[in-house]
Design goal:
The complex is a heterodimer of chains A (187) and B (591). Chain A has two domains: 2-38; 42-186, no CATH class. Chain A has seven helices and six strands, in the order ααββαββαααββα. Chain A has helices spanning 2-34, 36-39, 92-105, 130-135, 137-144, 148-157, 174-186; strands at residues 43-46, 49-53, 112-113, 127-128, 159-160, 171-173. Chain B has one domain. Chain B has 17 helices and seven strands. A two-stranded antiparallel sheet of chain B has the order 1-2. In chain B, α6 (130-160) crosses α7 (170-196), α10 (298-323) crosses α11 and α12 (382-393) runs antiparallel to α17 (552-586). The longest helix of chain B is centred in the C-terminal third of the chain and has 35 residues, at 552-586. The two termini of chain B are 28 Å apart. The mean pLDDT of chain B is 93. The chains are: A mainly alpha (187), B mainly alpha (591). At the A-B interface, α1, β2, α3, β3 and β4 of A face α1, α2, α3, α6 and α7 of B.
Amino acid sequence: MKKTLITATLYTLITAVILGIGYPLLITGIDHVLFPKQASGELITHNGEVIGSHLIGQTFTGDTYFNSRPSAAGTGYDASSSSGSNYGSTSKVLIDRVQASVTTDQNGSAPVPVDLVTASGSGLDPDISPAAAYYQVPRVAHARHLSESTLTHLIDDHTTQRQFGLLGEPRVNVLDLNLALDNLSTH
Amino acid sequence: MSLNGWLQIALFIALILLLAKPMGSYMTRVFDRRRTWLDPILVPCERLLYRLTGVDPDQEMRWTQYAMAMLVFSAATLVLTYVIERIQQVLPLNPQHLAAVAPDLAFNTAVSFTTNTNWQSYTPETTMSYLTQMLGLATHNFWSAAVGIALAIAFIRGIARREMKTLGNFWVDLTRATLWVLLPICIVFAVTLTSQGVIQNFHPYTTAKLVQPQTITTTGADGKTTTTTVTTQTIAQGPVASQEAIKMLGTNGGGFFNTNSAHPFENPTPLSNFLQMLAIFLIPAGLTVTLGTMVGSPKHGWAVLAAMTILWFCGVFVCYRAEAQPNPLMHNVDQHASLTQSGGNMEGKEVRFGIANSALFATVTTDASCGAVNAMHDSFTPLGGLVPLTNIMLGEIVFGGVGAGLYGMLVFVVISVFIAGLMVGRTPEYLGKKIEAYDVQMSMLYLLIFPLIILGFAAIAVLMPNLGLSALTNHGPHGLSEVLYAYASATGNNGSAFAGLSANTHWYNYSLGFAMFFGRFMMAIPMLAIAGNLAGKKIVPETAGTFPVTTPLFTVLLTSVIVIVGALTFFPALSLGPILEHLLLHAGHTF
């Protein structure tokens, strides 16, 4: 019994150093040689300032930007406190929230694409569906005095197709799309 | 449901079935201590480790010694993690200056990671330093997975050996599982994940200047509204990829971030998602082949794998179908699948994964005892959420957690041959071993402890409004589902959650802590007892009356026994939770 205890203690300490320090440092080393940009979070800089990450969504509201999905992370897209809403299908709070978003977002009589009025799992979803992007074209075009076809092309350019044509779903990165929109308006 | 969705699901299972044989044969060689191509590097490391820790690799252990070594080792690792959590504020690699973890939360977390559960009552971003995550938590992902594999190998030896008293050496099995199986795959996997965008750094959290500053209006408890302008976004960083790899491969499931594999830094692309799902099933599927080769009946391994695949398919079919349905309570919302959106129930799901990958991930993570999530199970439709809950309640034996799933499945195999024996009125045999009263008693103990802990604790929790019910986010039948899911997940060592339950309270931290502890060790010990007993038996020659365990008939019997035992045990509870909620949803009720 005493021998087992000594073995267990030594084994724990030695393997803790190998698996808990050696292994992550090895991976950090390899990653910083092979994939330095990915390892630090694919940050976007503008005039020397970090303005976000390609992978992390930001809140966009109002008529002049393509809006992002509702978010349950902190006060919205808080990337230091990721969270889903965790409301179930029969939750009154959820249904009321969705119907309120529908009232805000709806233009004309066409129903609102579902991802635009539902919160993502992480609260940081960087994407909306192409359907949700196209849906916002008339509103943004009107607010920015741009033609609808310009915006439709912009969305097509920023649509990421399924990986290898098979995996995942087509999607549009909202931050990238809005940065391109700002570029378009200033030129 | 879409054709593309089913193609992804079909590709997934095809790859798992293809990888099972090479993975299983490799593990057979590793645990039989035969030559492998990694030997030139690893054998010297292995010898050095034994010398430093005083292990005699040739010493064989009886089941009691094996169990004792496993328990003492688990206790030592548990203490280490508890201590690191409690003193993290004075340790290095804490750029956010996070305080010591509270005692009840530190206890819950230490038990959680020791038992391969990875239930997370804490919010990692604001609770755990980088060092605690690496040294206190990610290490457990290796250790608890290696312990699971070791236990499964011991059980297989119990079946394979004849007239022997021993099951192998715990320390050797543990070391070989870590060095030969887990670590090499993790190194390749972690780097691959970073290529997709999973971060790996020690930077302090990044502050980004928002493109569109936001005005936030909040109403305080006193009814006053306050308006604040948010101009920056704080982006959490950390050594994620190294932990992510072992989190999936070891079926641990504890996320580096609060939202686990839904977080874009843990799971940025559909490919990273696909590889993570493959990693969950890789070792459990391989172990069925290891079972077949080690006991000298490869067909038996395949028959078990077939039963697992059938149950997996039923789960994914129901879950995918339910999640693709529109929510009848939402109006003026386009919930139909088309070429430009995946439609369906998107609350709690990421656009890049859509419905098919969220449903598949939820099924896979609960078939195994992984518990990582890429969508919030609490926001699933009632029937969609029923699938992960049922998978856990069946004992996570459909592929199952690394090791734990296989030995759970083998207990069901023992029960199945026992029932087959009863039908024809002769003493049941399993691969030439007579199954006698002691084996069946221990199997029943294993099967009874599980629901007793889940339903017992859940009953206490819902009877005490201040302790149990005040933590709920959802009300009505869904509230009961949240409580049931928590105790099922803890006892089954899964670790996923209906996360609306605010579980970071004294009651839940301690009660779930004990549920995890009993769920791991009170089930591992009867299992080792069966193995020790089987190892000592003679082989009876096969006759015309022997029930073959290699045929489709056996697969059907095994599947039926699992479903019947699970259904008889949990159907009453499930009918008051998800099933009732489904009926009320379609009758137009909200809560």
